[in-house]
Design goal:
The chain has 17 helices and ten strands. With 473 residues, it is of the alpha+beta class. The structure holds protoporphyrin IX containing FE.
Length: 473
């Protein structure tokens, strides 16, 4: 039965509601419904009540309230932990709070000191530049070393290790990562809309119906994380923790008699997986998108080069200390985030209890979907919403406009991306280092269809494109 006073929208057929079109990206469908129903609307999909938020103010209000901080059931992500609550991304309540608190504390603490993120990233920038030099000249796809560099940053943080670009191990690991973002099996896509099926059908049967390949990927990725934890346990030195895994194992031991602790080896393995899955393809894809837009907009690239040349000597790399002197580069990064809306519909939340929002009732368990893309393309907030226009992020005197209303590539509120500072540091240092050394150009006639694949899940991954890389003299 339809609960009273829901936001306006689509209720659909008894039991099933109305399914989204398979041919139009979900983010586009949400944009069209915003025109009809406004900033908050209902859409019952597969019998599950969804509340879509598409206006910046209502998103900010809701995301800052704990009542909207749960995750709904996401069957494919549950497969990693054999359907047990563990890790950061796909958990609710106490497990989420404990794992997220640990991650936030350690991502901040470990960013300082002698192995600061800046030095870790700069080390990767140097390797990346060296590798790009091998690709100077002929048109081709961007080197795969971008992914290795981004993965290495996470490996250094979590396990104090890194890989050379030609190491087969990192190739295998990356292949598994990227498969997660490929078309997921149609069976799992159905479960996303109708998670109650997963409660009725035994997991074995689901795998047999078409989820076996995805399941095997989850097993292989989990094997990496479990091995990494076992290796750390074998040499754990209480007095000298080195990395995320060491600190976690120590904290787990310290909390072992605390009944409220939810730290466990499974939780650690899933947290590691979360950091890789949430932090690698996202950052690497944004770097690729940025190079695409700069190659397409030669005038913008020329301005970035001019700014770099006014601050740095040839051979010098941009560092964090110099960031405030490179406002145009920062504006370009902001504009890339805005225009690509990498996670156009963020990651879904769920309401923890019966509550209200903007005068409407929101029942417990409703799936809350925020449209980041609607905010990033709102003509009330952006002068030229559909163009690549870095000036959106610059004041008249050329200073960076911080905290712009309607800008939320990392979401906002209680579950805001805990990797935001790290990701932005990577984007600045990687792009700055590459642009200081190279010029990028699209071959004649090359373009990228910026349209999304309707079957992309979560991430608006960049499609392959060709580029000509030249060394700057
Ligand atoms: C360009 C790069 C990135 C973008 C655009 C991005 C964006 C996002 C967004 C939109 C969310 C969903 C927040 C929500 O549920 O409301 C998220 C969650 C998350 N991100 Fe990122 N992210 C990026 C990089 C990273 C990095 C580098 C890391 C860590 C190494 C990371 C770790 C996470 C985690 C663990 C979550 C789950 C947070 C939670 O559920 O409490 N992300 N990210």
């Amino acid at each position: 039965r339809k609960p009273p006073n829901l936001p306006p929208g689509i209720w659909g057929w008894p039991l099933l509601g109305t399914f989204p079109s398979q041919d139009i990206p979900m983010a586009e469908q949400v944009k069209a419904l915003k025109q009809k129903y406004g900033d908050i609307f209902t859409w019952r999909i597969g019998g599950q009540l969804h509340i879509f938020l598409s206006g910046y103010e209502v998103i900010k209000t809701a995301m800052n309230r704990l009542e909207f901080s749960n995750r709904p059931q996401i069957y494919s992500l549950d497969m990693f932990s054999d359907h047990i609550q563990a890790g950061i991304v796909n958990t609710s309540g106490k497990v989420w709070q404990n794992s997220r608190r640990f991650a936030l504390k350690h991502l901040i603490n470990m960013g300082m000191g002698k192995n600061s993120y800046e030095s870790v990233i700069l080390n990767e920038v140097i390797s990346l530049i060296k590798d790009f030099e091998n690709f100077v000249g002929n048109p081709g796809q961007l080197p795969w070393s971008i992914n290795v560099a981004v993965l290495n940053v996470i490996w250094r943080i979590v396990a104090d290790r890194r890989y050379e670009v030609d190491d087969e191990e990192i190739h295998r690991f990356q292949m598994l990562q990227s498969k997660l973002f490929d078309d997921v099996s149609p069976v799992l896509a159905k479960y996303d809309h109708m998670p109650w099926i997963g409660k009725i059908v035994p997991h074995r049967v689901t795998r047999w119906l078409g989820a076996e390949e995805f399941y095997q990927i989850t097993r292989q990725l989990m094997a990496y994380h479990r091995k990494c934890i076992a290796e750390h346990k074998a040499v754990l030195d209480l007095a000298n923790p080195r990395d995320y895994v060491d600190y976690y194992l120590l904290e787990m031991e310290a909390q072992k008699d605390n009944p409220d602790s939810t730290l466990s080896e499974l939780d650690l393995a899933i947290s590691l997986n979360d950091l890789f899955v949430a932090g690698s393809e996202t950052t690497a894809s944004t770097i690729r998108w940025a190079i695409f837009y700069l190659a397409k907009h030669q005038d913008v690239q020329a301005k970035v080069h001019k700014e770099l040349d006014s601050v740095l000597d040839r051979g010098q790399l941009p560092t964090l200390e110099l960031k405030s002197r490179l406002p145009y580069l920062e504006a370009v990064t902001g504009e890339v985030h805005r225009l690509i809306s990498l996670l156009a519909l963020s990651v879904p939340h769920a309401s923890t209890e019966n509550t209200s929002l903007n005068g409407y009732n929101i029942p417990k368990g409703a799936v809350i979907v925020t449209s980041i893309e609607c905010c990033h393309t709102d003509p009330e907030l952006w002068e030229r919403p559909n163009d690549f226009y870095p000036e959106h992020f610059l004041s008249e005197d050329g200073q960076v406009l911080k905290n712009r209303d309607g800008f939320l590539p990392f979401s906002v509120g209680k579950r805001v991306c805990p990797g935001e500072a790290l990701a932005n540091m990577e984007l600045y240092l990687f792009l700055g280092g590459l642009l200081q050394n190279f010029h990028f150009q699209l071959p004649e006639g090359e373009d990228l269809n910026p349209k999304r694949n309707p079957r992309d899940r979560f991430v608006n991954a960049v499609k392959p494109f060709k580029v000509i890389i030249s060394k700057r003299g």
